[in-house]
Amino acid sequence: MKISVILPNYNHSAFIARAIDGIRAQTHQDWELCLVDDGSTDDSWSIIESYREQDPRIVAEKAPQNRGVNATLRRGFELSTGELLYPAAADDYLSDTRFFELAVAALQRFPQAAFAYARAEIVDGDKGQQIGVMGSYIPSRRNHAEAKDETAGAPIRFIGPQEALTQFVSHHMFIPGCSVILKRAGLTEIGGYDDALGPQADYFLNHALAALHGAVFIDAPVAVARVAATTYSGSASDDEHIRRVALVEKKLRALALPYETDERLFAQFRTSAIGSRFVEAFQRKLFDSVRASCESIPLDALQMFPPEPAAFVASLKEDCARLESTLDAQIERARAIFTEVAGPVEPLALGSESGPRPWLKPVAEFFLSLGKILGKTFTGVGNWLWQV
After folding, report:
1. For the chain, which ranges sit under pLDDT 50?
2. Which residues does 355 contact at the CB level (< 8 Å), separation at least 6?
3. For position 140, what pLDDT does the model report?
4. How far is CA 281 from CA 171, 204, 290, 324, in A?
5. Are 207 and 214 in contact (CB under 8 A)?
6. How far, in Å, CA of 104 to CA of 110, rounded?
7. Positive or negative CA dihedral for 225, 226, 231, 237?
8. 3-class SS at 153?
9. CATH number of this structure's domain 3-235
């Protein structure tokens, strides 16, 4: 199965060589690289030309002026000929030489799936340090009959369409754009990259295809994604980001799905999307911890504090109240944007199967966090707790 790598580039001369090297190092050699430079003003093109001269599988084109990521991806798609597509980014790179091989084997094992995806490490674009891992799937409690396999060289799992939608809107499934290989027919079916979604175009496309046809999850890290405030997705304002995610919801709800859906699930999607954008859980935990620390000081002891630390304690309480008020306002504005763009949605019913029982949630999250550091045993325990 031939893989067409579609690689847009704009002024990423510092990163593009590593991106190309990661592709050329793949053990699955039946690929072509359709590289479109989007009017770069740095020395990207000279680097691209040097690689094109070395490898006939590299097809390169330079646009006379900058047109944007989605337009460049569309042009790369026009240049491509492969049955499978890997939409890449010039500032990311593949860290596992087996990724193409694993994805092809996974799609041959589960041909009904629209694509295969894997995990990716997240790296701070400015400091270069790893800050997390993305790419996930936590099965629902009712979904124990999924097909699993390890013959591809890594643990793989087929996720059915309805399960994919349910777990996506409950934030138990996430598909990284830098570690997904799509069937060409799927991109055509969805209509390609929607400019109105901006950096969320692939976010919608990937999860929409999973909701329609299912996906295969490869439980292995295969790529490295660079994040920074200056990247395409990182530079969006809060309002822009929320508006685009709300449009993702609207488009998902408009899909002609082959099964019945409960729109109330999207209430949880909104809550999770907003909470994730503003890191609500951690902010509130911080405010609560600071207040608890301040209030733990007995009044008679506080009266004996020197003026400067006493004033510091008072200012901490005031700052917590002010910052929490700001957070509340941000969340209310985000909810209003969701309602404006995607319409009102009925609240999620209590007792739904969107996650673990409330008293188990912190325990599950603890083990999942340990799993990122200490390995699959802890991740397995965390996943099991989510299903209890």
Report:
1. 144-145, 350-357, 359, 386-388
2. 170, 172, 361, 386
3. 79
4. 14, 25, 14, 12
5. no
6. 10
7. positive
8. coil
9. 3.90.550.10
